[in-house]
Amino acid sequence: MKYALSLILFIGLFIPMAVQADHHESKGFRHIVFFKFKDGTTDAQTKEIVDAFVALKGKIDGITDFEWGPSESIEELNDEFTHCFVATFKDKAALEAYLPHPAHQEFVSLLKPKLDKVFVFDYNPK
């Protein structure tokens, strides 16, 4: 009985740490992109760009998650950036393969004429 209790305590202490370690490793590599569209860009043009960006997840291997949203800053510290996109990649190598990918390059061609400012931040979650 004494050994069974010790085993239960051991499992209770170390299994959560193993699960947490696996979870940490599976966070992927983040590619955060902020856009400010040029004045005169219509809502329809913005929607076309957003839809094209979202569609890249289905066209390029290595993107494991994607989310986006327009700024709702209550502090007004967004430096006029209006849209944020967060792409999660399997790893940094997947991002490196994504950048020259023809589907991404096609998206960039659609975006550039309507883009006033862009800010990109990549990181490995800790």
Reading off the top of the CATH hierarchy, the class is best stated as: Alpha Beta
CATH structural architecture: 2-Layer Sandwich
Number of DSSP E strands: 4
Helix content: 40-55%
Please tell me the overall pLDDT: 87
Q: How many separate helices?
A: 4
* CATH topology type: Alpha-Beta Plaits
Low-confidence stretches: 3-11, 13-24
* Domains, number: 1
> What characterizes the major β-sheet?
4 strands, antiparallel
Query: Which radius of gyration do the C-alpha atoms yield?
Result: 21 Å
Question: What fraction strand?
Answer: 25-35%
* Form type: globular
Looking across the biggest beta sheet, what order are the strands in? 2-3-1-4
Distance between the termini: 40 Å
Class inferred from helices and paired strands: alpha+beta
